[in-house]
Amino acid sequence: MGIVLRYYNCFTHELITWYLDMTTLSRQKIPLFLTFCLSLNLFSCSNNTVNEHTSSYEKYSVEDFENTLMNLDIAISEHNYRIIHRSTIGQAIRDRGEKDFPLSTITEFCNITSAREMMEINPDLINAMPCRIAVREDPDGVLVSTRLMNESVSNPKQAEFAKRINQNLKAIIADTVQ
């Protein structure tokens, strides 16, 4: 599949280059649907595979919402990350009048040494920064979840880095929910 996709991307690049090299008069002769297909292809086929094959990882906490957030803060710090932002989405919705809305918070955190390493491996991974863990109330309790990095990539350094970060994220969640 990867070879076919690379060939398809190469072929698409050639079509786009050919199209852009044409004169305005020649472009007007191309049917409208072909132009539409080419423009769609620009947005739908990208070489950026940062978010492909990502998965979620989640565990329920034995604590209530507030204690789970405190445990998360401690776990993040113990794993040598620093919290850089917290979005208290559930509370914001409650503040607008939805008194019974489930609490939900997204905590963003980073380790600058790991961020530097990641950027040296693949600068496109900047879109995967920072790490995020969500804590939210649901009918079954307090759920702690994150999105894992893609480990199924062709770059062995990137795959190893993703595996290490995923292990850290899972360990942070394990320390949070126990």
Briefly summarize what is shown.
With about 180 residues, the chain is α+β, with helices and mostly antiparallel strands. Helices cover about 50% and strands about 20% of the residues. It folds into 2 domains: about 1-45; about 55-175, TATA-Binding Protein (2-Layer Sandwich), CATH 3.30.310.70.
Mean pLDDT: 80
CATH homologous superfamily assignment of the largest domain: TT1751-like domain
Q: How would a crystallographer describe the biggest sheet?
A: 5 strands, antiparallel
Going by helix content, strand content and strand pairing, the class is: alpha+beta
Helix percentage? 40-55%
CATH structural fold name of the largest domain: TATA-Binding Protein
State the order of secondary-structure elements, H for helix, E for strand: HHHEHEHEHEEH
Tell me the strand percentage band.
Answer: 15-25%
Number of strands: 5
Q: Could you say how many structural domains there are in total? A: 2
Distance between the termini: 41 Å
Q: What is the overall shape?
A: elongated
Uncertain regions: pLDDT < 50 for 5+ in a row? 1-13, 30-52
Radius of gyration: 22 Å
**What's the quaternary structure here?**
single chain
Strand order of the largest sheet: 1-5-4-3-2
Keywords:
TATA-Binding Protein; alpha+beta; 178 residues; 2 domains; 5-stranded antiparallel sheet; 7 helices
